[in-house]
Amino acid sequence: MARPRRGNPTPCADGAPEYSIIVPTYNERENVAVLMWMVSKAMQGAGATYEVVFVDDASPDGTADAVRELIRAFGSQRVKLVTRPGKLGLGSAYGSGLAHASGSWIILMDADLSHHPKHLPAFIAKQRATGADVVSGTRYQLGGGVAGWNLVRKLTSRGANILASFILGARTSDLTGAYRLYSRGALAKLLAATKSRGYAFQMEVIVRAQYSGMRIEEVPIVFVDRLYGQSKLGVGEYVQFVKGLLRLLVGL
Ligand SMILES: Nc1nc2c(ncn2[C@@H]2O[C@H](COP(=O)(O)OP(=O)(O)O)[C@@H](O)[C@H]2O)c(=O)[nH]1
Ligand SMILES: [Mg+2]
């Protein structure tokens, strides 16, 4: 599909929604219904047409069945489910979601309620006002923040961002956040080019967007630590992040 013009999304063909919200899930059974309810309230407030595309990697907790219930409740135009045979990772989950999404604008958000749907109207308003290709949620500007993290985790995240900004010359204040809005064409281009995994993935995407001259805007978000289920954060993630940073330094 052609890339929408800046600030002027391609008119929706045949009732296609303006916005596709792609939500990757792995063991999020307790979260998807609450998320969907909150998204539907927020999007009504934004006055925007939308669909939610869940991408589930055969979650052992039966997340896919919970999403099927949502399809029954909200309708198959509003909720879509893409299932994959095993845990294949976030980067490719976004790609699979994009392949099944019909909106001109794509919003990526986590399922665990860390990305509060109340921020959705701000992403949309910012894009409409500025014509940006990418609107990135930031914890590190006035009005943004994190809730539920201990000091060590706060310092790690902040430190990783400062280090990466310094090394890569990034102008975006939150490089590792995943709550973002993209034009369809911009996301397709960025996903095709991005090689990193884990936290370095979000950083590579936004740095590539900057380096390729895309217009990036930011909106403050408050990130809330997940209430239910397990985060993927572990020592391995830190190691991957530093490796990813070094690779970008050499390769971008
Ligand atoms: N489809 C899919 N979703 C995943 C995978 N790994 C994580 N997720 C989802 O991606 C989002 C972010 O993961 P999470 O564990 O909360 O990461 P954290 O908040 O950075 O610790 C959540 O919605 C997860 O359910 C994966 O391999 N495949
Ligand atoms: Mg999370």
In a nutshell, what does this entry contain?
The protein is α/β, with parallel strands linked by helices.
Detailed description of the structure:
The chain has 8 helices and 9 strands. It is of the alpha/beta class and 252 residues long. The chain has one domain: Alpha-Beta Complex (Spore Coat Polysaccharide Biosynthesis Protein SpsA, Chain A), CATH 3.90.550. It has a 7-stranded mixed beta sheet with strand order 3-2-1-4-7-5-8, sandwiched between helices. Strands 6-9 form a two-stranded parallel ribbon. Strand 2, helix 2 (63-74) and strand 3 (79-83) form a beta-alpha-beta unit. It is globular and about 50 Å long. The model is unreliable at 1-13 (pLDDT under 50). Bound molecules: guanosine-5'-diphosphate and magnesium ion (MG). The site of magnesium ion has 5 residues, from loops.
Largest sheet: 7 strands, mixed
Name the CATH homologous superfamily: Spore Coat Polysaccharide Biosynthesis Protein SpsA, Chain A
Beta percentage is 15-25%
CATH architecture: Alpha-Beta Complex
Number of beta-strand segments: 9
Function: Transfers mannose from GDP-mannose to dolichol monophosphate to form dolichol phosphate mannose (Dol-P-Man) which is the mannosyl donor in pathways leading to N-glycosylation, glycosyl phosphatidylinositol membrane anchoring, and O-mannosylation of proteins.
Domain Glycosyltransferase 2-like: 20-190
Cofactor: Mn(2+); Ca(2+); Mg(2+)
Keywords: Endoplasmic reticulum, Glycosyltransferase, Magnesium, Manganese, Metal-binding, Transferase
